[in-house]
Amino acid sequence: MAQELVLASGSPHRRLLLENAGLKPVIDRSTLDERALEAPLVDSGADPEDVATILAEAKATDVSARHPGAIVIGADQTLSLGDEIFHKPADMEAARLTLLRLSGQTHRLNSAVVLVEDGVVLWRHVGVASITFRALDPGFVGRYLAQAGAAVLTSVGAYQVEGPGIQLMERIEGDYFTVIGLPLLPLLKELRVRGAIDG
After folding, report:
1. How much is the pLDDT for 2?
2. Rounded to an integer, what is the distance from CA 72 to the centroid of its chain?
3. Beta bridge partners of residue 110, listed in sequence order
4. How many helices (H) and strands (E) would you count in the chain?
5. Which residue from 72, 133, 138, 198 has the least number of CB within 10 angstroms?
């Protein structure tokens, strides 16, 4: 019999990816303060992939305490431009500044996923995708933000590739699911290997 799966994330995008794949995870969002956890990691020189992995692990471990015997899926995504790590914009002005900073540049999305059972980490994976923005006219950025609306505040980078944000881009290299924030194919493979889902 398949184990209970718990998604330690409030992300509607991650939930939808799993549900579209035929999984029905329990949703139990971690209440950890991610920025408080991240600050010492960045100060110590941790790279963006490590930051994403450590945060995903912390969230899954936190939620695992409430779901004995379940496999908890923790996920986190960082956006990096060189060594600089970006976060979800706090407001539309922060979103505008983020987009102008990324204009004409190639940034990386580092999407970590971790499986935890009873507080023990079973598996870790980081998918990496690269996105190159075209050179953005400031006027277009303003029009894009007006069209996309408050949804830009829910994603690191202030865009969603599955919406108007695709117009910001010149090139995408990497897996679509990694861009969305959950490396789905490696995750499904690992869950099948563990007998947690039908395979």
Report:
1. 65
2. 16
3. 78, 128
4. 7, 7
5. 198
Instruction: Residue count of the chain, please give it.
Output: 199
User: d(Cα 77, Cα 52) in Å, to the nearest integer?
Assistant: 5
Query: Whole-model pTM?
Result: 0.91
**Is the predicted pLDDT of residue 1 greater than 70, yes or no?**
no
- Rounded distance between C-alpha atoms, residue 85 and residue 159, angstroms: 16
The answer to whether 93 and 49 are in contact (CB under 8 A) is no
What are the tens digits of pLDDT across the range 98-150? 999 999 999 999 999 999 999 999 999 999 999 999 999 999 999 999 999 99
Classified as helix, coil or strand, 88 is coil
Q: How far is CA 163 from CA 15, 53, 58, 151, in A?
A: 17, 27, 30, 10
Catalytic residues: 76
CA angle 26, 79, 148 (to 5 degrees): 75
Tokens of 5: 């799966």
CA distance 4 to 103: 43
